[in-house]
Fold this protein.
Amino acid sequence: MDTHPAQSPSPIALCRLDALVEGAAVALDAVAQAGGEPLDLILLRHAGEVRAFRNVCPHAGRRLDYAPGKFLLQRGQLICAVHGATFDAADGRCVAGPCRGEHLQAVAVRVEDGLIQLAPNQHPAAISGTSD
């Protein structure tokens, strides 16, 4: 019988909250688990909330940034540089363009002690886009 309690994985810090200004987006790579694949993420600060999405357009599977880490943002919307799909920064829903009605894949994050971290309930398979 195992008498050791299960340890929860250590939180994965993504960046400092003060590095993400309101109305801006940053791109970063994170590894969800030891030995895991890097994840291309977009962090957005919108209406005081931090949002995270995979940096993959559902239309063509390409990154949304027009240059590494440079995004087109306009009036609370994130625009894919390749085909112009336009996503609501609040929920990642495509509101215009070739994949209207689809969503960016959200990644759960939390802010603790001034750090943006992957949320503890974020399952690595959900982050990496693999099915469970």
Summary: The radius of gyration is 16 Å.
